[in-house]
Amino acid sequence: xxxxxxxxxxxxxxxxxxxxxxxxxxxxxxxxxxxxxxxxxxxxxxxxxxxxxxxxxxxxxxxxxxxxxxxxxxxxxxxxxxxxxxxxxxxxxxxxxxxxxxxxxxxxxxxxxxxxxxxxxxxxxxxxxxxxxx
Length: 134
Prior knowledge:
Layout: H1 7-28, H2 32-42, H3 44-64, H4 73-131
Helix pairs in contact: 1-4, 2-3, 2-4, 3-4
């Protein structure tokens, strides 16, 4: 890879923009996430596919970001996010019946809260990633 390619900047920016867009969609159309989780909960095929996609994306994020410790906080955060995504994907594939029921109950109670948390986290990641390009 050329020295000018910043994997941490790109993964943070793209994951942040994804989170930002997903949160805006959820705030614009309340109940969307609850419907999505309900559909996945009812379909073993969607459970497997969504778990595989999250595992693949989490692994890509984890593997492209160095474990830099205190020298590069964003890289460390991105590596941790990638690791958590892989762990969640394995939970989805192994315990989907329990996992999705927990999320359905949670989203019913605090749907807008999760959307706002996702919006703020997405905006923070996107800005942090973009700042590395300046």
